[in-house]
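User: Show me sequence and structure for the first protein, then do the same for the second.

Assistant: Starting with the first protein.
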Amino acid sequence: MAIENPIHVNECGLPLNAIEWLETHHRSKLRERERMIQDLHLKEGSRIVDAGCGPGLWTPLLARAVGQHGRIIGIDVSAEALVTARQRSQGQWYEKQVLYKQGSMEFLPVASGSVHLIFSANVSQYLPEPVETFAALGRYLVPGGQVAIKDIDFGTMRFYNVDPILQARVFQAREDWERQRLLEGYIFEDSWVGSKLSGYLRAAGYDHVQERSYKIVRQAPLTPEIRSYLQGIAEWFICEDAPFLERDEVKRWLQCFKDGEECALDQERFCYEETEFLVTRTWSGQAPSHYVASLYPATSDSTSV
């Protein structure tokens, strides 16, 4: 099957990761994201890795939390996103606090035992082996350092004035497709990952995992950012040819969100909600029980922050 009509894809082939899309998504949920960072209770002067930083949207939130003596290193696989992140920080109050580097979560370009927090938002949904990846993170933390993983879970999404039967069909079809899409030549994706994160951390050998959930509710009238976000998400649900849906179902779903008199987003009683998850664990200084260091040798490109 050919890869057709991907939605908001970046140069690495990751869906919903085009820079303009990420910026719109960020603005649409900014107040909840500010609260997530506040709930981490970061200490001033902390050294942080933002793993999967994208175009640097979380950087000012993290920089404000750690104060002018704190340091942040943003890491991403996308060169395009890193260019945007650097440009975004130029001339800003937090510019001297941040350094951006290309790399992956599996092999962070930082020294072992050098950072107080590894923060990662909306990255775990693209990890084929999240347990192994999370197990590798602890070695980069100082004793008492913290891992904080945040992600979405579209199993929690509801549109309250859209046909519930059609909505259930679309959501189930997308979940079924995500179980198969890797076999069809697509990049791995699990958009139902949020509620699984705490289990993944425990399976990686961590204990005392804390989970926080953040319900996001938006009602009419919608801001341009949230309206654009919801239209993009609606289109994403039926992208890649939606092989588990009938063509008529695809057509009816799109009609619910298409601009015009029938658009559900513009109805006076429109309401939508979803829940995002943030899981944290404090690092004791002992490797998780099944972590095998030889599988993750230290990178030669280490950077102290």
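Switching to the second protein now.
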Amino acid sequence: MDDASAHQGTARPPVRVIFVGSPGAGKGTQAAKLAEYLGVPRISTGDMLREAIASGTPLGKQADPLMGRGNLVPDDLLIALVRERTTREDCAQGFVLDGFPRTVRQAEGLAQMSDGEVSDWTVFSVEVPREELLRRLSGRRWCPRCQATYHLTSDPPKVDGVCDNDGEPLVQRDDDREEVVARRLQQYAARTEPLIGYYRERADMVEIDGNRPMAAVFADLKKHVGVTA
């Protein structure tokens, strides 16, 4: 039995984890690994929004021009999206939130879903230097068919410009263009960094050095949710 299977078979109270950090800090990768390890859903507002845009839903039509310019989607829309998702049956044992909340207003809306109590939640603040964030984000490429993500230098496809899974040409998302990336980081500094102070006072907030190999970061995450390697 592997490490993850052994842990999933152990009785435990519901676990609720939030990842906070700049775009490009590696939140999505680590959130997915931790959710799989714990046996709970990873809830990515970014993925849900991109799916809504691709499907042409009313929310997608509102979000598309905003995301294309590197702007944040309004708080109320995201709160409603997350509220609906976290009430599904697969979230009964907890969940890992990736990309939400990004503002104190969103954090307050999330707390209301839990009757205002978040003291038993774990909040990971993933820290990465700005220069490294710019390198990571501007080098990302994406498969529009299967949603796989690559990086030109750190995780390139086997064939340049083509997805390994389905042969689809890779594209650069509008929100990963260098000028948009700079705007996203500026918005993060202005609107999202206050979350660190908010959660430091209310939850179990842990600062994680994200400028390390993925395995080292993941080992820290497991340790702080009460799991040893």
